[in-house]
Write a structure and sequence with these properties.
Radius of gyration: 57 Å
Largest sheet: 5 strands, mixed
CATH class of the largest domain: Mainly Beta
Shape: rod-shaped
Strand order of the largest sheet: 4-10-9-6-7
């Protein structure tokens, strides 16, 4: 009986030892056979630790905690533990953007004291006071915060906490994450030459900001300087030439190097041009007044065809306008309706404007409305082109150009006021109506004057039937010599260039009932 009892106790002891061994963490690996002969899997990490009999072993690392998280214990050298309580401060967060809030907490200061806090860019800068904090009985403080100034756009900064009346100070360094500059346009729609107002912030203080249009590879359209806070207050930029549709302004700071793009919609130009006259005669000068072209650009003026050489070149001002510009003298070759075509050199904006060339409609009167052979006739007229030669013909019909018998030259107003050469009625001229045609050389305008020829009652001085020489207008000789001025011409020159004295009309010669005063004759 005693032997059985001893054997039972031994078995129980062995089982207890086995249980203790199996209970050690990490003692059963995946694929090991647990007590009872069943194969089990476990999530516990495998270690190289060897358990000691009786449950005594070395430190375990790592172990699985609650929820399967792995934790570890760090061995610390007791000789390196700091027992002295030095002052310190912490920033939360330690990185911020201009205008953001930074929290400051500290510890290790003397209980109940006051701590002054300052901010500076680096150790060599003058510190800026940002406030103070009260130290609690544990030597710490919290709940303090400050705002990063807008002038700090990048780089690092230093916060210093200095205890009043004591030597304890602490520093903490933070970083400024540069803001992306922000540009605000008054309008994002316009056309070349428009002034667009804008404001900006977020650039580096006192830096040059270049403004590009569509590409950084092109020269900047403007350069401005930011203020002390990195802002630009209510500036303006002129819209340059560009394609109609979507474009963009690009702002780049020389220091911050932060490009900012602002979209801009370019509108089409719709220019208009007015003429100084829309209906005028040849030899009239026209000028042009226009608006809504591109700023400071050349505008070419074509007549009737854009493929022909331009007839004038105009220059716009900063607003794309011009007034009473150019000078186009209407040539005598133009007739009827004509069209000017205007093309902007940079903007390629186009418009047209038409005008009518009016015909000349002159009138003429003879110095007398009736006379016998031998009578000298001169003429007065108006409505011709200025400073043109007017030739006098007889016998002019639709089929015949007639015979030139006299000529005159108009003044600055296109009038014939005397002078020139007169025509002497020839002795063999038949009684009846003689029609004189006056034709302007430049205007090709025609006027008609009529004289009633009466029968001669006696011999005519200078008369005869000799063959008449062809008349030569003295103004045709201007290139060959100096013609006698009109005011100094002889009273009359016969067609054969023989001076003749007017034959007095006998007292009993009937004259027209009314003798009108010739035009222009005083």
């Amino acid at each position: 009986m005693k032997k059985k009892l001893a054997a039972g106790i031994a078995i129980v002891a062995v089982l207890a030892i086995i249980g203790l061994v199996m209970a050690q963490p990490g003692n059963v690996d995946n694929g090991q056979i647990a007590a009872g002969g069943a194969s089990q899997a476990t999530d516990k990490p495998t270690t190289s630790q060897t358990p000691a009999i009786g449950g005594v072993g070395s430190q375990k690392t790592p172990t699985a905690g609650a929820g399967g998280q792995v934790s570890s214990t760090i061995q610390v050298d007791p000789s390196k533990i700091v027992t002295e309580r030095n002052a310190f401060i912490l920033l939360n967060p330690s990185t911020g953007t201009p205008g953001s809030s930074i929290g400051v907490t500290g510890g290790g200061f003397d209980p109940g004291t006051t701590v002054d806090l300052t901010l500076r860019r680096n150790q060599s800068d003058q510190p800026q006071d940002i406030g103070f904090a009260q130290v609690d009985q544990g030597g710490g403080f919290g709940g303090f915060s400050f705002t990063l100034p807008d002038s700090m756009v990048n780089g690092s900064f230093v916060v210093t906490a200095k205890q009043k009346g004591g030597a304890k100070t602490a520093d903490a360094t933070g970083q400024v994450r540069g803001n992306s500059p922000v540009i605000k346009f008054g309008t994002q729609v316009g056309k070349p030459g428009d002034q667009i107002t804008y404001s900006a912030k977020g650039f580096a203080p006192q830096e040059d900001v270049k403004i590009y249009f569509n590409s950084l590879a092109t020269p900047p359209v403007d350069t401005v300087k930011s203020d002390g806070s990195g802002g630009i207050q209510r500036a303006a930029v002129t819209v340059p030439y560009g394609a109609v549709g979507n474009n963009s302004f690009i702002f780049v700071g020389d220091k911050s190097q932060s490009p900012v793009t602002v979209q801009f919609l370019m509108l089409s130009l719709y220019p208009t041009v007015g003429l100084s006259s829309y209906a005028a005669k040849a030899d009239t000068t026209l000028t042009f007044t226009g608006t809504d072209f591109g700023p400071n650009e050349d505008v070419k003026v074509f007549l009737n065809s854009a493929s022909a050489p331009p007839v004038a070149l105009l220059k716009t001002d900063g607003t794309g306008a011009f007034k009473d510009a150019g000078s186009f003298l209407i040539p005598f070759e133009l007739k009827g309706k004509n069209t000017f075509i205007f093309v902007g050199d940079k903007s390629q904006a186009t418009t047209t404007s038409s005008f009518d060339v009016l015909p000349y409609t002159p009138s003429a009167d003879p110095s007398t409305y009736g006379g016998r052979p031998g009578t000298s006739v001169t003429f007065y007229g108006a409505g011709f082109a200025r400073n043109e030669i007017v030739r006098v013909y007889i016998g002019r019909t639709q089929t015949s150009s007639g015979k030139e018998v006299a000529c005159f030259k108009t003044n600055d107003q296109g009038a014939i006021v005397g002078g020139g050469t007169a025509y002497t009625i020839q002795p063999n001229t038949q009684a009846g109506e003689m029609v004189f045609s006056l034709i302007g050389d430049k205007s090709q305008a025609a006027a008609v004057a009529q004289v009633e020829i009466m029968e001669a009652t006696g011999p005519v001085q200078g008369g005869g039937t000799a063959e008449q020489k062809e008349y030569v207008c003295p103004y045709d000789l201007e290139g060959q010599g100096s013609p006698t001025p009109a005011s100094q011409t002889q009273p009359a020159v016969s067609p054969n260039n023989t001076p003749a004295s007017p034959t007095p009309v006998p007292a009993n010669t009937p004259l027209p009932a009314v003798t009108p005063t010739p035009v222009g004759k005083q």
